[in-house]
Write a sequence for this structure.
């Protein structure tokens, strides 16, 4: 496929692999955190680790939109669908994420709740138009990439005067999360997690630009390279990070110049700013409360805020006992460090959120990399 | 058929609807059967009007397979639930190497279903059966109340006869064998997805729904010692290969670059974050055979209309874990796992 295959060229990958091998010093390790699940997915899907020297390691970050949503918010969404006879719609990946009491949106649907999968916020608006007698709630999740479409939908609903459309807003922000990881005791004090540099988000950065990362690259002295999601992007970015580390630099570099600019998409930013505003704090799965890390709907649009129209209680919910998703999301543990991984927690029967989405580290390990852990007894579903 | 009309008023095929009476066993049902089912499926066994079809058995082994068909939308680019119900079961029978001969068809129809649609579906079933060389010889009709079905469900059962000396089975793949596919992967699944009302692509991808019995007959003729045949339907190529790997207790090594995928399907999958290896096919087969038979089989397949894009995609290897692995075009290696749950579009 034109414009895609060029970024998946095996011959070029070999050359890049050789360049990385040459550039990487043999007397140290390079721990590179890829923030986004999209990168995690690419690393496993294309077998990028195979092409890297042993001392260049990828540490998987929390950038999987369904993985970081706390269980309580999913419980809220299920309650919204069940208690208000509403049509709750959301993106596909969200459907199977386990909530409290072994429930999920998919199971709530099977039990009779009207939960629907949509591909875009426009589909959600269409549902609201088609069912004027029912409440249609869009369960909005995701990083800065999916935020502008939510803002557009809310504005459009206002223009059309759609009285039955609301948004349960759970949009979160990337820079706040990266900063939070760098401030965590594991990284700062104990040193049990070593992160030498970041592969910066690609789609997110197309919206927010590369500028927001400049502060913490400087503050924490960690290089950031904004990286595209294609496998050659990931390798090229790793090479750029290794070079920065070798030269003692800690700058924000942009590998994904075909899409990302320093300023980002100003129109999208303005749109988001018009409809949404910062929350004082928001709970992230794995990271806990992170200040100013999420968005809520502004008062001027409160009629479209599901949290205003319906009662959405704060639910404190706990992970399944033994589930290491929180540590995995912080890069403290690997999926194979979790006792549940591959035993009772598999993509067919996920216990934690990281096993659900193809962007989750556990699902990627399980689906694409199982042969690397042959010592573990593997059970298969029939 | 007799010239005397049993029913003074013909069914209103243009505007009529199925109602509860059409499933009640009375005159209305008899009329529905005669004016739609017998009319299109017409064959001697059906015309006898018995509750069963009787035929002489062949000497040797026979094969039977059954498949329930539920699909939304009922009509899609490249076919509809009727043609699919014939192809699905014909292919299941054919994957044993057998020649499919007879089909039964059970209909569960929702009250209010347009007769015109039913007629269209039955018409394409008849056409599909004719092309596949099978006769629909017995059937059943039930009508359920509105809201208790999704338009129409069709269950078909197929019976076929096995040629002597053919022993095709999912547990016969052995280390050193090669893996062939008859064409591009993922066409049916993407055609269905793109024709669902809430997903609109600009290109129209056609379902590959087709009866593979003819292709299989030619393959078996050329190489009677084919080890495994299977059609990668739900769960796609990846899931079907995992099934065989488990049944045969072997591993597989695939080459991503050799797996044929239509560029439009690839583009649609790219857009939705799907993997074409997990997308359903309804007119493709996977063949596992000894390495020395591969060239002959590929030549036969490529001569056939339904195997033009046949390709060798990998080899069978020893592996106690039963893993299907793939060398990516990129140069790395990865596991190709079973499909977990449903393939869902990614968010980011």
């Amino acid at each position: 496929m034109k414009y895609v295959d060029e970024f998946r060229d095996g011959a070029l990958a070999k050359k890049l692999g050789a360049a990385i091998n040459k550039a990487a010093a043999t007397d140290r390790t390079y721990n590179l955190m890829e923030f986004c699940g999209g990168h995690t997915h690419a690393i496993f899907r294309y077998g990028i680790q195979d092409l890297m020297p042993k001392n260049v390691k990828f540490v998987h970050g929390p950038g999987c939109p369904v993985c970081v949503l706390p269980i309580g918010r999913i419980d809220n969404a299920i309650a919204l669908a069940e208690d208000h006879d509403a049509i709750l719609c959301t993106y596909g990946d969200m459907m199977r994420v386990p909530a409290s009491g072994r429930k999920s949106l998919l199971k709530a649907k099977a039990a009779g709740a009207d939960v629907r999968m949509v591909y875009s916020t426009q589909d959600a608006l269409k549902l609201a138009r088609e069912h004027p007698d029912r409440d249609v709630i869009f369960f909005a999740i995701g990083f800065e990439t999916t935020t502008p479409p939510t803002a557009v939908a809310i504005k459009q609903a206002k223009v059309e005067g759609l009285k039955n459309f609301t948004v349960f807003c759970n949009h979160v922000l990337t820079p706040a999360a990266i900063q939070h990881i760098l401030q965590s005791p594991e990284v700062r004090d104990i040193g049990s997690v070593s992160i030498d540099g970041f592969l910066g988000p690609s789609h997110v950065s197309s919206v927010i630009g590369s500028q927001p990362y400049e502060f913490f690259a400087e503050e924490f002295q960690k290089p950031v390279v904004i990286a595209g999601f294609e496998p050659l992007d990931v390798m090229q970015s790793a090479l750029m990070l290794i070079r920065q580390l070798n030269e003692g630099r800690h700058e924000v570099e942009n590998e994904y110049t075909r899409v990302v600019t320093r300023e980002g998409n100003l129109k999208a930013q303005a749109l988001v700013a018009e409809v949404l505003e910062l929350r004082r704090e928001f709970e992230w799965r794995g990271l806990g409360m992170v200040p100013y890390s999420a968005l809520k709907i502004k008062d001027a649009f409160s009629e479209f805020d599901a949290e205003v129209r319906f009662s959405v209680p704060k639910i404190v919910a706990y992970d399944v006992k033994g589930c290491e998703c929180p540590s995995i999301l912080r890069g403290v543990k690997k999926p194979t460090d979790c006792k549940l991984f591959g035993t009772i927690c598999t993509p067919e029967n996920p216990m934690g959120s990281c096993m659900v989405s193809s962007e989750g580290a556990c699902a990627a390990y399980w689906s694409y990399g199982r042969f690397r852990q042959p010592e573990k007894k593997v059970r298969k579903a029939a | 058929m007799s010239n005397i009309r049993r029913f003074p008023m013909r069914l209103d095929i243009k505007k009529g609807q199925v109602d509860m009476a059409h499933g009640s066993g009375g005159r209305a049902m008899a009329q529905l059967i005669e004016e739609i089912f017998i009319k299109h499926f017409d064959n001697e066994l059906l015309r006898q009007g018995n509750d069963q079809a009787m035929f002489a058995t062949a000497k040797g082994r026979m094969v039977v397979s059954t498949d329930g068909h539920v699909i939304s939308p009922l009509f899609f680019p490249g076919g509809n639930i009727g043609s699919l119900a014939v192809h699905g079961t014909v292919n299941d029978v054919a994957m044993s190497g057998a020649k499919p001969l007879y089909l039964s068809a059970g209909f569960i129809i929702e009250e209010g279903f347009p007769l015109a649609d039913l007629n269209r579906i039955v018409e394409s079933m008849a056409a599909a059966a004719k092309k596949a060389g099978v006769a629909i010889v017995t059937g059943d009709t039930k009508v359920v109340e509105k809201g208790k079905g999704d338009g129409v469900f069709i269950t078909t059962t197929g019976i076929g006869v096995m040629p002597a000396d053919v022993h095709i089975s999912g547990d016969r793949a052995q280390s050193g064998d090669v893996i062939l596919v008859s064409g591009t992967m993922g066409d049916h699944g993407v055609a269905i997805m793109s024709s669902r009302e809430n997903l609109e692509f600009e290109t129209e991808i056609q379902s590959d729904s087709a009866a593979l019995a003819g292709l299989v007959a030619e393959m078996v003729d050329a190489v009677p010692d084919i080890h495994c045949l299977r059609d990668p339907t739900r769960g796609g190529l990846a899931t079907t290969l995992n099934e065989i790997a488990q049944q045969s207790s072997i591993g597989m090594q695939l080459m991503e670059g050799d797996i044929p995928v239509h560029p439009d399907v690839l583009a649609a999958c790219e857009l939705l974050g799907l993997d074409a290896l997990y997308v359903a096919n309804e007119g493709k087969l996977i063949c596992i055979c000894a390495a020395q038979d591969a060239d002959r089989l590929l030549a036969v397949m490529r001569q056939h209309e339904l195997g033009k894009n046949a390709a060798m995609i990998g080899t069978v290897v020893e592996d106690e874990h039963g893993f299907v692995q793939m060398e990516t075009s990129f140069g790395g290696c990865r596991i190709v796992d079973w499909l977990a749950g449903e393939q869902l579009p990614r968010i980011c």
Chain A touches chain B through 61 residues (CB under 8 Å). The longest strand of chain A covers residues 56-63. The domain at 71-174+264-309 of chain A is CATH 3.40.50.11740 (Rossmann fold). Residues 374-382 of chain A have pLDDT under 50 and may be disordered.
